[in-house]
Design a protein that fits this description.
The protein has 25 helices and no strands. The chain is mainly alpha-helical. Helix 2 crosses helix 3 and helix 4 crosses helix 6.
Length: 470
């Protein structure tokens, strides 16, 4: 292909782009791999050029990480936009040309918004990459002028290029937060909380050193997300004071870096914590504020809209609840998926329908609530085991049982609630125990107090609560 293009008069600089185009179109090779091959680079050589572009030939990029970038999204690791920009310099192209349709469908909303909002760059080969190509291939030292020989103002300015962070470290921090968030559905809150605290400690240690401004911002974003996730998990453990403190720290980080997505993460966590702490109106207000910060897709609004509905429901504000549920339903019907591998804040469909159902139940719309709860169960049972949040099943059962009680169908309610008599709820989040108390209180009310079966069920549920370690 190179020989044919050269024979047709293409310049040496123009040939890689045509080769990459051919490999992508005719050989179905993904764009990041196609561009590397078009530049006649091995994985290790591409990594060495990457490090040289970043100003340190001994920095942390490895050939194995380049390979992981090339495998994404089927497997491997998602490259950050910073990594894509550096690779684009290495290959002499624009970063957008390293993404295809499958990549775009799996980009987080924040990155997709930047993709659409950034003007196409002129393809260019980095001066650093051109300068170091021959020394890197032959193993010779890269010549450089010692900082001490530079004029004093230049030497002072060059301090700004000093950094204790590289893209590999940032990638790992982001990968760890996403992995722990996704693992939370099938892990104990305590375990994930401890691991997240270690990620945050690593981040804060790096922040004590010197980075480039963009790297410092990324580290603060990691801190914001870690604190918001830790606040969420602390509430699940019943530690509401700690949860509120962590969320306050997360909000300060989000404000400092002035990032809309970070603000939405934090407001989502704050709204959830305030709801389970008994502050429904404040929960709704926080969710409304989160919606003021734009996101990539309308489906990204769904968790905040449902959090708003649930907050209003706790204070019996029926009109606001129905308005919020209507807004969510229009989104759910038209945009059924979220293009994001981060499932922690972008809650799954079963949880969305559960939140709609419990909100409707709280304002007396029992028939509509039961419909949403049945959909939640159907979706939950259709999920792969590793994608299920184990607390979802008892939450659906509890509110479905409450709905049947409202309709006077005690036998149907008892069938839903019978599993709780023999199941240990000690490992379940605090919200499951809180809802069991609500359920026991409703069963003990005047409507069912004359039923011996209802009284026995209440006693069994209360025994379950007493046996829970706190």
């Amino acid at each position: 292909m190179r020989d044919r293009l050269a024979a047709l008069g293409f310049s040496e600089d123009a040939i890689p782009a045509r080769v990459a185009q051919h490999l992508t179109a005719e050989c179905q090779i993904r764009p990041r791999t196609a561009w590397r091959l078009a530049c006649d680079m091995s994985l290790d050589l591409a990594a060495r050029h990457y490090n040289a572009v970043n100003g340190d030939a001994r920095a942390g990029m490895r050939g194995s990480r380049i390979w992981e970038y090339e495998q994404w999204p089927d497997r491997g690791v998602r490259p950050t936009l910073s990594a894509l920009r550096t690779l684009a310099q290495v290959y002499g192209t624009s970063w957008k040309s390293l993404l295809d349709l499958r990549d775009l469908e799996h980009l987080p909303p924040r990155d997709l918004a930047e993709y659409h909002g950034t003007k196409e760059e002129e393809p260019r080969v980095s001066t650093a990459a051109v300068t170091v190509r021959q020394p890197l291939e032959t193993g010779r030292q890269i010549p450089h002028r010692a900082t001490a020989d530079a004029p004093k103002p230049l030497a002072e300015a060059m301090i700004l290029t000093t950094t204790n962070v590289d893209d590999v470290q940032l990638d790992q921090l982001w990968s760890d937060t996403i992995h722990l968030g996704n693992a939370y559905a099938r892990s104990s809150p305590d375990s994930v909380l401890r691991q997240l605290s270690l990620v945050r400690e690593r981040t804060m240690t790096l922040l004590k050193g010197r980075q480039r401004p963009k790297q410092t911002k990324d580290l603060y974003l990691v801190s914001a997300k870690c604190c918001a996730m830790m606040g969420w998990m602390s509430a699940d453990l019943g530690r509401y004071g700690a949860a509120q403190e962590l969320n306050s720290a997360a909000w300060l980080y989000a404000q400092y870096v002035d990032d809309h997505f970070a603000r939405r993460w934090v407001r989502t966590a704050q709204s959830r914590v305030e709801y389970w702490a008994g502050n429904g109106a404040e929960s709704a207000r926080l969710a409304q504020d989160g919606l003021r910060h734009p996101a990539g897709t309308r489906m990204a609004d769904a968790p905040l809209i449902l959090a708003e509905a649930r907050g209003w429901a706790s204070i019996q504000a029926e009109r606001q609840v129905l308005d919020a549920i209507g807004r969510w339903a229009r989104i759910e019907d038209s945009e059924p998926t979220v293009a994001d591998e981060d499932r922690f804040f972008n809650i799954s469909k079963d949880r969305r329908h559960y939140m709609a159902g419990t909100s409707l139940l709280s304002v007396g719309r029992t028939g509509l609530a039961l419909k949403e709860l049945r959909t939640a169960r159907q979706v939950y049972e259709g999920l792969a085991p590793e994608e299920r949040w184990e607390a979802m099943e008892p939450m659906i059962r509890i509110d479905t049982g409450r709905a049947y009680l409202r309709l006077g169908e005690f036998d149907a309610a008892a069938a839903e609630l019978e599993p709780f008599v023999s199941v240990d709820v000690g490992r379940q989040p605090d919200m499951v125990r809180a809802m069991l108390k609500v359920l026991a209180g409703e069963l003990a009310g005047p409507r069912w107090c004359s039923s011996s079966t209802a009284c026995n069920l209440v006693d069994a549920l209360r025994d379950t609560q007493v046996s829970v370690p706190r």
